């Protein structure tokens, strides 16, 4: 049985909004004492007593845990933690009210047709004010020109003589209060938020490649929900770190009594760009487990070790 948790190291996340309960893997091999943070149709995020979060597939949880997630109690906790609107401030002081829901790499096309300006085939004037203000910034950034106001932007549009101009925007998907989604580039955020948001960009790009190779949406879904949870947490506390430690559990050998499972925390050595890893390795003692974990993950050094099965 392969079972995957992803844990996120943080300084502080959500104020305690629910009592900790025991969560159990569907196989019964692994359990965790933690509070519920939030969930979607596929994943659940939990917070342990040490203030670290973990994400798991709902299908990998016990039937009892799945029933709990379908309860009104769980829904109320989710809404309190993740359901509210967030206010993000751009580098120039503009406020964006909504929710960050995913990473994105999308084309933004600007064209003047029949005397009107269209953005991705939508009338510029029909877009919300915050996005109308962002479009000149996108053009200014990629064309390396100064467009200080809407008049300067309209003059730039006229100079294109009806030719469509397309810019590839790397950033996040921002869901507005009415549910519409817009691609917001990283570069419009202030330096602190820019660095925080881009920390997960490389892993998101890898997930897109893996999704194509595996013909599966699991990794993109997981990345999106993790970003949603982290964005909500970051909105509450600006000191949150975004390194993700992946924890893999494979306890099939434990069931037949051949060995024990040990949770080995690994930290990247200098020069290793990968995030920390929470590796569950098999061994008759901790030394065997550490050796197995390091053998499977070169470029890391050992942190804490704890037994997760007898």
Automatic annotation (TrEMBL):
GO terms for molecular function: cytoskeletal protein binding; identical protein binding; protein-macromolecule adaptor activity; ubiquitin binding. Keywords: Signal. It comes from the Bacteria. Residues 17-74 form the SLA1 homology domain. Residues 1-20 form the signal peptide. This is SLA1 homology domain-containing protein.
């Amino acid at each position: 049985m392969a079972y995957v948790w992803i844990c996120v190291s943080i300084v502080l996340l959500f104020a305690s909004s629910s009592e900790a309960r025991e969560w159990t893997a569907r196989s019964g091999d692994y359990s965790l004492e933690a509070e519920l943070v939030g969930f979607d149709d596929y994943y659940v995020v939990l917070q342990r007593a040490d203030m670290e979060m973990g994400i798991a597939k709902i299908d990998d949880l016990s039937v009892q845990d799945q029933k709990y997630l379908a309860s009104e109690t769980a829904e109320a906790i989710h809404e309190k933690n993740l359901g509210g609107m967030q206010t993000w401030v751009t580098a120039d002081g503009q406020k964006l009210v909504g929710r960050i829901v995913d990473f994105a790499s999308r084309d933004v096309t600007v064209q003047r047709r029949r005397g009107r300006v269209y953005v991705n085939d939508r009338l510029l004037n029909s877009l919300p004010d915050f996005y109308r203000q962002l479009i000149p910034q996108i053009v200014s950034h990629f064309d390396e020109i100064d467009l200080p106001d809407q008049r300067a932007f309209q003059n730039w549009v006229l100079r294109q003589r009806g030719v469509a101009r397309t810019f590839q925007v790397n950033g996040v998907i921002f869901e507005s209060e009415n549910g519409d989604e817009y691609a917001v580039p990283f570069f419009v955020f202030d330096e602190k938020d820019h660095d925080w948001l881009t920390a997960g960009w490389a892993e998101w790009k890898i997930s897109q490649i893996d999704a194509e190779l595996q013909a599966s949406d699991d990794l993109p879904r997981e990345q999106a929900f993790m970003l949603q949870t982290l964005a909500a947490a970051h909105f509450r506390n600006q000191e949150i770190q975004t390194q993700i430690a992946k924890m893999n559990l494979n306890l099939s050998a434990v069931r037949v009594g051949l060995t024990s499972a040990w949770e080995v925390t690994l930290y990247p050595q200098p020069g290793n760009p990968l995030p920390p890893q929470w590796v569950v390795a098999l061994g008759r003692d901790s030394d065997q487990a550490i050796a197995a974990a390091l053998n499977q993950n070169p470029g890391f050094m050992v942190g804490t070790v704890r037994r997760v099965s007898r």
